[in-house]
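Researcher: Next entry in the queue.
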Amino acid sequence: MHAISSAVRYALLAGVGFLMLYPLIWLIGASFKTNSEIFANPGFIPSEPTLNGYIDGWRTSTPYTFATFFWNTFLIILPKTIGTAISCAAVAYGFARFEFPGKRILFATLIATLLLPNVVTRIPQYLLFRDLGWLDSFLPLWVPSAFAGDAFFVFMLIQFLRAIPRDMEEAARVDGANTLQTLIYIVVPMLAPALISVCLFQFIWTMNDFLGPLIYLSSVDKYPISLALKLSIDTTEAFQWNRILAMSVLALVPALTVFFLAQKYFIEGISTGGVKG
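Model: Structure for this entry, 277 residues:
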């Protein structure tokens, strides 16, 4: 009976897992089909596999190949992720470990920003960056993250820090370490799982961000992947879906790779509320 119960349980889990993964499986299979077969064959296994979707999609309809758009995405993600990790860790450390005038008001303001939809701040931010002359550059995408503009990450690190005992920090201060040294050499190593989770979230969200680059970037040579995929879709003419699906598969590869490489630390950072004794 135990063996039958286990078999049924695993069969149900496998079935549910297949249903959840089927859109991704179909996407990969359809990327190897011709454009006509995508509509003629609803299954995910191509009858005559071809790489034309990847070859033609990589060339794009612009003077640039998809490598340019991958590089632009990297130029946006790397500074944004690093800036988020550094600024959010510093701000969270200040809120979690220090008492200063107006702390409760500032923390309440921080939490209040979590309730604001991003669309509410789009126009004021656009006007600010326009007056600074930053339009059609990566600065509007970098700078807010460098100043802890993502309140969710700050709150997440604050909650993680509150569960960490202060014994090691106090011992470091007794040994003569200043605040910055304590943060870098004591707090950051203990925050590593949470920081990895923050970086992973930021990486995936930035890869999927479409509205931000659409608002601030106007030159095609600066477009990230999200906007480059939109270039392949022309509403006035027939377009090749196999090219779009092929490039969508390639766009998923970096996020999936980073997630599986950091999966252990990501789960630990999400589930752990303190340090192990």
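Model: Residues 66-97 form the longest helix (32 residues).
Researcher: Noted, moving on.
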